[in-house]
Structures
1.
Amino acid sequence: MQPLYLADLINLAQAPLYLLIAFLALLSVKTAPRPRHVLALYALVSVAWLGAQVVWNRGALPFLLNDFKFRLPLYGLLLLAIILFWFVRAYLLVGGSGWGWWSLGVVWTGALLLLDSSRASTSDILWTGGGWMVLRDDFLRGGIALGWCLFTGAAVMTTLLAFRRTRQPLVRNRIRYLVLILLLVIAGQVAFLATYWTLGSLVSLPGVLIAAYAALTPRLPSLRRAMQRSLSYLITTGLALLFYLAALTLSLSAFRATQGTSPWLVGISLAAVLAVFFTPLLSQAQKWIDRLIAGVSHDPARILRQYSQDISNILDLDLLAKVVTELIGNALDISRGHLFTVSYEKAPEGGNCYRLQGVKGKGEEDPVPGILLEESPLANYFRYQRPPLPQSDIDNLPRFGGTPADERQWLSTLQMEVYVPIHSKDEWIGLLALGPKNSGEPFWDDDLFLLSSLADQTAVALENARLVESLVRLNNDFRRAIAALDQANRNLERLDRTKTDFISVASHELHSPLTLVNAYSQMLLEDPELASNPEYAKMLSGIHSGAQRLHEIVESMLDMAKIDTRELQLDLQPVSLGDLISSINEKLDAALKERNQKFEALDLTSLPAIQGDREALRKVFHHLLTNAIKYTPDGGKITVSGQALYPTRELLTESGVELVVSDTGIGIDPSMHEVIFTKFYQTGELALHSSGKTKFKGAGPGLGLAISKGIVEAHFGRIWVESPEHDEVRCPGSQFHVYLPLHQPEKTRPRPVI
Ligand code: ADP
């Protein structure tokens, strides 16, 4: 057994790394599969290739002929060159199957292997002539080297052409990575061809590692920036080294010059000088070098501070969109951007969706609104993820493969380069869409990180602006509703005035002729000659009662007109309500008998007399009792009860009397308790009312309760009704309450108006 050489150890140590790369490339799912699979193949072949080198070094595998064993790693190299070319095509997403190339590779390698294996039948010298001799070994090595050059050259050419063909910064960045990979791998393989095997494998290893990084990372950071940073780091480190050396030399000479001084003292002074001057100097130098190499870059902390200051007080959505896109545009050198508000709603074709409403920001055009279906990959991303999403990710990453065509179409009309979701309390409320940078540079990770922080700052302001906007909308709706109400109110007032005018005019015009008709019909009725003829007597009595009924209605209209026009004059005198009720009762006795109804007045004689207008109050109770008779079926009962009321601190300020007219009639629905006191109000259909003053449900003009209320309130009293329901079968009954104060106040106090 031969001992292991250092070269063998180095080769064996690389093998696990290649296996790991193959393993990761096969397992990862975040990036396109083709480059990953080819990379895994490359890594596995590399392991075999390293193994072949160990075999060669140790002269193992005795069954293989020695010279073939020497060429084995070279065949591996050819195979690696073919796979590298394959990787380049997969990485650059070159279309077509590339069968021509693969056939060439197979034929080339096959022919060489065939020649190699015909060792027994052919001589080692393939050709002699002209003083030249071609050995088989040389021919084979030459063939392998030529094949290697062919495929490696093709890989380089494909890369350079792809770089020239594209202007897209992100694609160019990807290709830059490829250039670096090719540089390292090819340099390593050239070293190998030049027989520096170990060096060769060590140089190509970083290339393969970078290839793994590039093939497995969805969003590659800027290679140029990484280079710039490394360069700036190298220069700064060099400077630091120089500084330290200078300080050391100085301190040594100082130490020598001041013989006898304590070395501690010199050391401490040196440390103090370094601490005071070195750190600020170095950081300043770092800044200069950065600026020199990378140009002016933004300061995220300053931008964030300025941004949150500028937008914190904005409550107007349009202004917010303008300021936000303006500030971000200036910070990142972008000339177009929109802010979208997001609302969750029902989708037009069923299901739910997010509606994105654009608010005009930086740029000329108005943003096109969009709809994202709830289950679409885009909505899913914006709903649950915070980091900004570049358009290139939507185009390339497998997770966005299922994006519906119209959502892609919407994005392409926007022509933006990055989308930044805005969340407030885990709810997706907005989206910032930003156009490309003016420099043509893509959005790098630090830009995206800055945008993500800016989106967080925007959330509160956007939420506030949205709230204010909905408040303003609500306020406008409210104002419109008030204006409509106002208009309706004015119309109602006009209608009411017309009604009042009509009542006033009609009652005044009808009053005089009706008085005449009434008087003459009375005279005719009293004529003995006419009375002796039963036919005439009947006709005259009909005319007279009709004229009287008409007279009563016109009287009611006159009363109503007086109440409406506030012309009602009260002739105040002491009134005993008990007497008043019994005198009304006498008049209604005939009707009660006709309807077979019982009447009862409970204890009204003990009530104190009140100050009021007897005739007006007579009308009040006349209407109430007539109504009670009308809305109570035959055989029912009407009761009038009363009580004297004395002031209580909370409810009543003056002494008075409360009278209650109760019946066992059809009752009144509680929802009607207020409206029945308005003029011309009647429940039920007019056509169904039976006519007649005291007939069951007999029709009236709908003025009785309105007049009663007007008169009671003119006495500073109150009238209201209590009844559980309206039911013509069960007849729950109604109670009309009338409260009247004992005394009327001075005239100066305004009387209430109905
Ligand atoms: P009308 O001339 O129709 O009687 P009113 O103003 O006196 O007009 O009454 C208004 C409406 O109130 C009536 O049409 C009736 O529906 C209802 N109403 C009044 N009094 C009673 C009552 N005692 N029982 C049931 N309904 C009543």
2.
Amino acid sequence: MKILVTAGPTREPIDPVRYLSNRSSGKMGYALAGAAAHEGHQILLISGPTSLDIPAGVDFLPVETGLEMFEAVQRHIGRMDAAIFAAAVADYRPAHPATGKIKKSSAPLSLDLVPNPDILGSCRSVFGFTGTLVGFAAETSDVLDHARGKLIAKGCDLLVANDVSRPGIGFESDRNEVHLVFPDRIETLPEDDKTSLALEIIHQVEKLHAH
Ligand code: C5P
């Protein structure tokens, strides 16, 4: 299969030296890209900035901002059999990034933010993607309810949900526990390292694609 994977955080410029971002390490997305390549699939990994090594055998397209990630996905998704959205795209970006470094002053400073496009949410409606679509959801409460809502709203075949309020798993960790939310059922994969979970998720994607 040809599989597109998004991973990592995005960086939204405030001025030439500052940005808004989040604590995504990219580990889950990179583990998915690596596991899928290892299984013999053709992978395009579209990634925001991380400190990780690019997995072996993966085509790599680095981006910085949510808008760049949106454009990269739009350009490539048409030829994909499946797309897995593990990136933590910033929900907002500064409306008017300054062209020069903002000088310090004693006055308060406010930033105008505008929403970034929802890349996963654009796949069915804007990009016309008909392949297997997998989203992620990091939640701190009512994990399964929110995940099911996102599965339906974004037209996914599978939504992988994790509880980021639990210490020791999820963001920045090598380990995770995830719930696989399908339109007709939920399966929980107990806590494990992200490499093993990634392989299990790729097997699920293979099954979804075969149906
Ligand atoms: O941020 P949210 O919980 O809605 O993210 C759910 C899914 O949507 C994730 O798979 C994430 O990668 C994707 N997403 C996206 N573009 C955004 C926001 C989220 O592709 N702007």
